[in-house]
Amino acid sequence: MTANLLDFDLDGLAAFCERLGEKRFRATQLFRWIHQRGAHQFDQMSDLAKSLREKLATVAEVKGLSVISQHESADGTIKWLFDVGAGDAVEAVFIPEHDRGTLCVSSQAGCAVGCRFCSTGHQGFSRNLTTGEITAQLWFAEHFLRQHLGRDERVISNVVMMGMGEPLQNYAALVPALKTMLSDHGYGLSRRRVTVSTSGVVPMMDRLAVDCPVALAVSLHAPHDALRDSLVPLNRKYPLAELMDSCVRYLDYAPRDFITFEYCMLDGVNDQPEHAQQLIQWVRTHGGKGVSCKFNLIPFNPFPESGLTRSGAAQVTLFAKILSEAGIVTTVRKTRGDDIDAACGQLAGEVKDRTKVTQRMQFQRNAALGVTSVSHDAGGVAA
Ligand code: SF4
User: Fold this and answer.
1) What is the residue with the minimal CA distance to atom 3 of ligand 1?
2) Helix axes 24-35, 10-19, angle to 10 degrees
3) How far is the C-alpha of 160 from the C-alpha of 273, rounded, in Å?
4) pLDDT beneath 70: ranges in the chain
5) Can 91 be counted among the known catalytic residues?
6) Quick check: 190 and 134 in contact, CB under 8 A?
7) Is 9 within 8 Å of 66 (Cβ atoms)?
8) What is the pLDDT of residue 199?
9) Distance 110 CA to ligand 1 centre (A)
10) Which CATH architecture group holds 66-352?
11) Ligand 1 in reach of 297 Cβ (< 6 A)
């Protein structure tokens, strides 16, 4: 079977090369060609022995993802929709700012957590992405952007695992992908600039702290269990007190001295002053010492199936003010790429997007079979 070299972190590639009778430094050379230079053909790799290149060509490949579509926003945000097979598609989004370039990466096709305010959650779960499929989003985006922007040096300085899926429910594939992002022979990203965002998979937060401590963002969205149970169903398994305990433990390993709490502002649901006060209570007093944190308030991107609406600007400002006056650093996320549906919560196949993907693929299949008409609801919602 042909191995996809994007599936390996450097240690994995070294083990693969060892099986071919090659030394570790060959794996390092290969890794640099793939990730630092974007090479995908072995005959491009001029400092590898010809015999090794020929051997690799028979047993391995560097296989990225097919791009279904690319949309560039007026503000420079670029969204790619990638085909991951069987009618599934995932998105990655590049968000440029004056001092950084951030790539938002997906970890699963669909998501099993089913958060009420998330369009991905409403599609259900298809499957975990492989390490190669996670890494391929960065590999493609970085090398595309260098060409697109005419730059020789690195374009992507930050990665956030905030696309489609719950990364900590795809832990085995996630960790090697993170290691490739962090490797000096790969993308050389700082641990502080790689963020895993979780809805609160407590046991895996504890494992991540030990295996690959990167910056952590926790999707909080509610200040008490009854409300969080209804917004983030995983809360029934790992309620707030357990989640906060895990955050405190993570801080002993984290590259930053705070956890980022993401909080999607939902009109009349979780955006009242008493909710802000309850949050302050948690992060000031939990476990006696509180939880060192920042809050990131996220404007909700409404979609019909949610039955929810976005909090008004005045409500968001008041909420932020209450948290800030309690000494908690609080930011309000700017919405980016609205004109291309790239804003958070619409990632990776907003229901209608994925339906279109499914329909297009159904159309292609039917065309191949000589079928001429396609029902409007062919495929429906993909997951
Ligand atoms: S917010 Fe994250 S964890 Fe929740 S359903 Fe959406 S993708 Fe899954």
Assistant:
1) 166
2) 130
3) 29
4) 338, 341-383
5) yes
6) no
7) no
8) 98
9) 9
10) Alpha-Beta Barrel (3.20)
11) no
Domain locations in the chain?
3-61, 66-352
Distances (CA, A) of 179 to 17, 134, 151, 182, 208: 18, 12, 25, 5, 12
Q: Would you give the distance in Å from CA 278 to the centre of its chain? A: 29
Answer positive or negative: Cα dihedral of 194, 199, 201, 202: positive
Write the burial class of residue 326 (CB in 10 Å: 0-12 exposed, 13-18 middle, 19+ buried). middle
Please tell me the CATH code under which domain 3-61 is placed: 1.10.150.530
Catalytic residue, candidates 91, 133, 142, 350: 91
**Considering Cα of 173, then 179, then 185, then 187, what sign does the dihedral take?**
positive
Identity of the amino acid at 214: V
pLDDT of res. 120: 87
Contacts of 127 (CB under 8 A, 6+ apart): 88, 108, 109, 110
pLDDT of residue 60: 98
Pocket test residue of 93, 107, 119, 120 for ligand 1, highest count of atoms within 8 A of CB: 120
In 3D, which of 102, 165, 101 has the Cα closest to residue 133?
165
Whose alpha carbon is nearest atom 7 of ligand 1? 165
Common-topology check for domains 3-61 and 66-352: no
| Confidence at residue 379, expressed as pLDDT on a 0 to 100 scale | 24
Report d(CA 271, CA 263) in Å as an integer. 9
pLDDT of 377: 23
pTM of the shown model: 0.90
